Amino acid sequence: MSTATTEGGPLLPQERRLVTEIPGPKSRELFARRQAAVPPGVGTILPVFVERAGGGVLVDVDGNSLIDFASGIAVTSVGNAAPRVVERVREQVGRFTHTCFMVTPYESYVAVCERLNQLTPGDHEKRSILVNSGAEAVENAIKIARHATGRQAVVVFDHAYHGRTLLTMTLTAKNVPYKHRFGPFAPEVYRAPLAYPFRWPTGPERCAEEAAAQTIDMIDKQIGAENVAAVIIEPIAGEGGFIVPARGFLPRIAEFCRENGIVFIADEVQTGFARTGHMFACEDEGIVPDIITTAKAIAGGLPLAAVTGRAELMDSVHPSGLGGTYGGNPLACEAALAVFETIEQEKLVERARHIGEVMLPRLHALKEKYRIVGDVRGRGAMTAIELVVPGTKDPLPAADVAKRCHAEGLVALTAGTYGNVLRFLPPLVIPDHLLEEGLSILEKAIAEHDKTV
Ligand SMILES: *Cc1c(COP(=O)(O)O)cnc(C)c1O
């Protein structure tokens, strides 16, 4: 299986190497400057300043090489500075850097949209627009759904994360840190229960059916289906804790939307582009969304996002009703074309499945062995463990375990409404030996933390 070391690209040694404590002296110095220049509202998970990155490692300014289980939050799935991305962007930057697609268009924007229309689930006719961020994609998906249906209400779910702009922060479920004191929020947003198997009151077996019934009942009684423009859901909840909805829940909700003329929007900003062992996570249960939002892994780290949807919905908006200055920037479009090619050429969908096959058995073994591991879940290269107070389902904060991992040179992220989930998003090109080493560091961190609670 190929690794970071794709044809022709400069290689970083694929190894963990610690030469100072983490963070090292140069990172600490830069962090002091950062604190004087950048407000704490922009958080920092691991105050290590990066100098280079590629494959499964990040190399910091002190010369430490860290194992990457984050991919910059599911962005660098094809690897950092991936050779095809570098090459195409390098060529484009010398040709032109911007014209604004709405002023004078260029081919790469169209090519990205054509590929998105092919790659996303369903063989119906589709259209795409390109924007700059996941939040902007979600905003536009809602605008389009409202315009096409002439309705206003939007239904979202517990544990949802859809972004930080006014509307998307409203759609997001969690108060601290995303919403606290940032109100008032946008109107016409209604929240339904998510089929969260581990925490469903009557147990995982009845979760899908009961959560779907409660959602439909809420829509009928509180809103009226004929007033609902869109239901938006992450096929696997990302920031909310890598919650895989109980099987059957998503198809039932999609079916209800179809029966009632409601636009079903899949927010695949985190789950998209091979991450879960499918090109899109919706494919796992054969769901064909009316609109799909994508971002994160779409362009190997360049800022790009997209809304792809049924032609009749997308075409319903009046001319010039959609757009933005930078949306579909030519450098980002070239990067996206390189990403699509890399996923195909390096068989990264299969590679994501393989990563799941390596990680999930070892994570399940942790659950058998350590009392603080309450649940193991995920698909492909999007996996997580949920920590609990031993013998209960009470959330046990995951930050301490993450800190232990960081100190050993493993970049691991937390997540979850209760902050008690450790989530793993390695680049899909990470070599197996780094996956295994990262898991061993994680096990040691859990073992140590387990003794303290
Ligand atoms: C990250 C994320 C967003 C927001 O994307 P930004 O690019 O940070 O605006 C929206 N939805 C989901 C599911 C995400 O994971």
UniProtKB/TrEMBL annotation:
It catalyses: (S)-3-amino-2-methylpropanoate + 2-oxoglutarate = 2-methyl-3-oxopropanoate + L-glutamate; 4-aminobutanoate + 2-oxoglutarate = succinate semialdehyde + L-glutamate. Its cofactor is pyridoxal 5'-phosphate. Keywords: Aminotransferase, Pyridoxal phosphate, Transferase. It comes from the Bacteria. It holds the Pfam family Aminotran_3. One of its GO terms (biological process) is gamma-aminobutyric acid metabolic process. Coiled coil: none annotated. Pathway: Amino-acid degradation; 4-aminobutanoate degradation. GO terms for molecular function: (S)-3-amino-2-methylpropionate transaminase activity; 4-aminobutyrate:2-oxoglutarate transaminase activity; identical protein binding; pyridoxal phosphate binding. The keyword Transferase applies. The keyword Transferase applies. Its EC number is 2.6.1.19, 2.6.1.22. It is an enzyme of class 2 (transferase). NCBIfam families: GABAtrnsam, PRK06058.1. Belongs to the class-III pyridoxal-phosphate-dependent aminotransferase family. This is (S)-3-amino-2-methylpropionate transaminase.
